[in-house]
Design a protein that fits this description.
alpha/beta; seven-stranded mixed β-sheet; 14 strands; five-stranded mixed β-sheet; 12 helices
């Protein structure tokens, strides 16, 4: 029987984690305040109550210890899901992620698998203090041995977290925190239906004037810009990358060959970033189809600013439309 529910991203993640734990007793959840509190964003709300403290573990404030423990649990056959409370707290665990988690499968010639998921709430827009609004995903996309995923809507949240947990390779699962409880990306989901594959790029709005590629929280900005551009007679095609490593750029190439223009959109700083890689790859594969240079709309190459300034830092609808105008004027 179908069980269709209209869910926010936060609720979809909660139900996806619950389903994974019901289906596999080896799935564990661990992190700071994930148990009794249910996480600072309430994504794990109720899971410790229903599955017990042996499977939903409140850990010390020690990201290196959380991830190191998850590596050991994976070696013993468990499937740990770690929550990093805010993306800016992940760096004490960077060594464990890059030196151990990403390498053990390769180092052991496939004998040891690393089915570890690291959930990372990321991005700005919540009026937070330092180290609570950053976008470090490019750093992890650069590390071989890791899958890096970023969701933008409730459907991908529900199915994506389950597929990440079933993966035998480590997955960094970036979640747009400012959209957790927003109705903007709410969607109807048949929670008992056929799983939706979430590890490939997807055209989320078709268009012919220019292509806008985005991921995570920037997808909503791209869709809002496309709606506004329509009033000006422009038809923007919007692509949600979904998987950041390995990048699935086939749909992007196909779209650019049709539109001749590309805007790459992200909250992260522009230098040495995913938008840099997208621009380079599109130029390489679609050079003769381009009618204008690839343009990028990103955060600035500065530390994330105080909350009073973040609305000026974050790429918004106007900056995307300005980039479209620049591209069309080329």
């Amino acid at each position: 029987m179908s069980d269709i529910q209209k869910l926010t991203i936060g609720k979809a993640l909660n139900l996806g984690l619950r389903r994974a734990m019901e289906e596999d007793p080896k799935v564990l959840i661990m992190g700071e305040d994930v148990g009794k509190l249910g996480g600072v964003f309430r994504i794990t709300d109720g899971l410790q109550k229903d599955f017990g403290e042996q499977r939903v573990l409140d850990t010390p404030l020690a990201e290196s210890g959380i991830i190191g423990t998850a590596v050991g649990l994976a070696v013993r056959g468990f499937r740990p899901v770690c929550e990093i409370q805010f993306e800016g707290f992940i760096f004490p665990g960077f060594d464990q992620i890059s030196s151990q988690l990403a390498k053990l499968h390769y180092r052991t010639q496939g004998k040891i698998k690393m089915p570890v998921v690291i959930r990372v709430p990321f991005g700005g827009g919540i009026g937070a203090v330092e180290h609570h609004s950053e976008s470090p995903e490019s750093l992890f996309a650069h590390i071989p041995g890791l899958k890096v995923v970023s969701i933008s809507n409730a459907v991908d949240a529900y199915w994506g977290i389950q597929q990440a947990i079933k993966s035998d390779d480590p997955v960094l699962f970036f979640e747009p925190k400012r959209l957790y409880h927003s109705g903007a990306m709410r969607a109807e989901i048949d929670t008992d239906g056929t799983p939706v594959s979430c590890f490939s790029s997807q055209v989320v709005r078709e268009g012919t004037t220019a292509t806008v590629v985005a991921y995570g929280p920037s997808v909503k900005v791209a869709l809002d810009a496309a709606a506004a551009a329509e009033d000006e007679g422009h038809s923007l095609e919007v692509i949600d990358l979904r998987t950041l490593s390995p990048l699935d750029l086939g749909p992007v190439f196909e779209s650019v060959r049709k539109t001749g223009r590309l805007i790459a959109l992200s909250e992260a700083p522009s230098e040495s970033s995913l938008t840099s890689e997208i621009a380079a790859r599109v130029q390489q594969e679609c050079f003769y189809s381009l009618e204008a240079p690839v343009l990028r709309v990103t955060g600035f190459d500065t530390p994330y600013p105080p909350a009073k300034l973040e609305e000026h830092y974050l790429p918004d609808l106007d900056r995307v439309l300005h980039a479209v105008d620049r591209s069309l004027a080329w």
